[in-house]
Write a structure and sequence with these properties.
It is a single chain. The protein contains five helices and eight strands; from the N terminus they run βαββαββαββαβα. A two-stranded antiparallel sheet has the order 1-8. It has a two-stranded antiparallel ribbon with strand order 2-3. A two-stranded antiparallel ribbon has the order 4-5. The mean pLDDT is 89.
C-alpha cells in the first residue's frame, strides 16, 4: 500500500468533526458510535488521540475471520469487509489490537475504515491536520527529521551540561 492514514495526535483538538463526517459519509447519520475513526480522550493529560485502522499487512482481523469475509482491496490496499459473506461473529472486533473494528447494533454488521475509496473525509475535514493521507515515503522522511531533531537536542543538552561541570 503506497498511501495510508497517519495520525498526529499532538495536533488533535478533540473537536470530533472527523467522527461525525465519517458517520455521515458511511451511515448517513451524524453518530460518532458509527464512525470508522474514534477520538480517545486522555483525561489526565488533556490529550486527544484519533484511533484508526492501521490496514495491517499481516492483519489479525483478516486472519481470524472464520469465513474469509475480510480481504485486501487490490487498488488501494485497504482491508474490506464483504457483508455478503460476514456472519457477524465479531471475532475481528475482538482481535484488532487498535480497536479499529466496530459493530453496528442497528444493521448487525462489523465495520472498519475503507479510506473512503481513496479520498478519506476525515482528512479532508480536519482543519488542524491531525489526520493525513500520505505516502509511506513521506512518513518515513518525517520520522527521520523528528528523530534527528531529538538527537540534535540531546547532543546540545549534553554539550551544555559538560560546559557547566
Amino acid at each position: 500500500m503506497d498511501k495510508f492514514l497517519t495520525v498526529y495526535s499532538e495536533k488533535c483538538t478533540g473537536c470530533r468533526l472527523c467522527e461525525l463526517v465519517c458517520s455521515v459519509m458511511h451511515e448517513g447519520v451524524s453518530n460518532a458510535a458509527k464512525s470508522r475513526i474514534q477520538i480517545v480522550k486522555w483525561e489526565e493529560e488533556g490529550r486527544y488521540v484519533p484511533m484508526i485502522c492501521q490496514q495491517c499487512e499481516d492483519a489479525p482481523c483478516k486472519n481470524v475471520c472464520p469465513v474469509g469475509a475480510i480481504s485486501r482491496d487490490k487498488d488501494l490496499g485497504f482491508l474490506n469487509v464483504n457483508h455478503e459473506v460476514c456472519i457477524g461473529c465479531r471475532s475481528c472486533v475482538g482481535i484488532c489490537p487498535f480497536g479499529a473494528m466496530g459493530f453496528n447494533m442497528t444493521s448487525h454488521q462489523v465495520f472498519k475504515c475503507d479510506l473512503c475509496g481513496g479520498d478519506p473525509q476525515c482528512v479532508r475535514f480536519c482543519e488542524v491536520k491531525a489526520v493525513d493521507y500520505v505516502g509511506s515515503n513521506v512518513v518515513s522522511a518525517q520520522k527521520k527529521r523528528e528523530s534527528a531533531a531529538r538527537q540534535s537536542e540531546a547532543n546540545r543538552l549534553q554539550v551544555s551540561a559538560g560546559e557547566h561541570a
